[in-house]
Amino acid sequence: MARRDPHDILGVPRDAGQATIKAAWRRLAREHHPDLTRNDPAAAEQATRRMVEINRAYAELRAASTSAADGNGRGNGRVQWPPPARPTRPVTGRVDTTSTFRPRNTTTGPRHRPMGQAPVRGDRLQREPLRASQPTGPLNRRRQRNFRPPPPPSLADARATTIEFGKFHGHTLGQVADFEPTYIDWLARTISRDPDLVAAARAIQADLDARGIVRIPRPSPV
């Protein structure tokens, strides 16, 4: 649906000045303001749409009048509609790439090389020799020769491990396993900064599974 001309919406001629446009806007605003509908939802919605159209038309004509005044430096108060297009600048430029063009299957070295001279290698920089290690990569200890991971702790040592954080601070894992074994499962799957504690929790977890202790999963503690 095509939008109506703002002059037709406000009921002003095409050569109307700013004073005429503003007076027409005020008159229409007093007639169609939504506050005059007296709690009638349908009339309020219709008046709101009408005021949106009136305000938009007034804003467009006011902006066009301002741009017309700024364009010639004087401004005669007359509105030109539709407003003239703004001057644009090209967003693209010509780039000469003829020097970078090379025919297919040609080398990038010198075109004329004396007979018997070895071809120029592509890598002219003195690079650092390759190393077998990866200093920034992960350390895979299982690939090291004669490496054996530390044995898991015994069940007695695991139960004697003391927790140094959380709501069970100062308790041993054995005490926690006796009255809240689900916390042992949470430690085994969540903690990552303390490998010894994780190993102890997994040892107790294996013992609980072997004894058939049923645990109901609980939400992680905050």
Helix and strand element order: HHHHHHH
Strand-residue fraction? under 5%
Q: How far apart, in Å, are the first and last alpha carbons?
A: 57 Å
User: Low-confidence parts lasting 5 or more residues at pLDDT below 50?
Assistant: none
CATH fold-type name of one domain: Helix Hairpins
Corresponding CATH superfamily of one domain: DnaJ domain
At the first level of CATH, the class of one domain is Mainly Alpha
Specify the structural class: mainly alpha
Number of strands: 0
Which word captures the global form?
A: elongated
Cα-atom radius of gyration = 41 Å
Biggest sheet character: none
| CATH architecture assignment name of one domain | Orthogonal Bundle
* Average of the residue pLDDT scores: 76
Helical fraction equals 40-55%
Number of helices: 7
Would you give an account of this structure?
With 222 residues, this protein is mostly helical. Among the domains are: 6-72, Helix Hairpins (Orthogonal Bundle), CATH 1.10.287.110; 155-210, no CATH class. It contains seven helices and no strands. The protein has helices at residues 6-10, 18-32, 41-72, 155-159, 173-179, 182-190, 195-210. Helix 2 (18-32) runs antiparallel to helix 3 and helix 6 packs across helix 7. The longest helix has 32 residues, at 41-72. The protein is elongated and about 95 Å long. The two termini are 57 Å apart. The mean pLDDT is 76.
